[in-house]
Here is the input.
Amino acid sequence: MSYGVAVSTGFAAATERRVGTLTMHIGDPVFTRGSHVFVDESKSRGYHLAAVEVRPELLAEVRRGLRALCRPGQRRLHFTRESESSRRGLTGPLLQQPVVGVVCSAKGMSDKEPRTACLRRLVRDAADGGVALVVLERDESVEAWDRRIIRSELQRVVGDVRYGHQDAHAEPVLWIADALAWAHHAGGDCGDGSRRSPGGAFA
Here is the structure.
């Protein structure tokens, strides 16, 4: 199991890469006290759990900016379902959002093991960093399992992290996590020919 592009180092960085205002850390815990973290996954080419951290005072600004990217009648952004030209047009605005993105990847596991392993590490790093709230995209097939894993992990760590699940159309910041997870499994190609991941994973 690997985190970012490092091995067994958690959601984090020995290095830091920036484009626009987005940052991805690879090596050291990145979460900061009081922040909110939004989580989505990709199960293509392995398992990838993407987490996007936002400071509470910036949430309204980020949400407004993301909703402005939706086409008329569109409830949410979903990178998997966007055309290549749409992804190309969305990459720039996503990269300008004042967030930090990190990815946990796991391979060689079956069933729920990858999500469980990545989720446990996310909870530990969130507690260590003093994160106030973790929001996962709602998937009813794993929601009860998620809650059991999170409760179990929180009993082992020092820290009080609130958590919950939300529908993607109701929480725009989840769209960045979706884009980051998609770009990570796609090798960083966001559809514009560059090797970039929203969230700062740049190759």
In short: The radius of gyration is 15 Å. The mean pLDDT is 77. The domain at 2-191 is CATH 3.30.420.10 (Nucleotidyltransferase; domain 5).
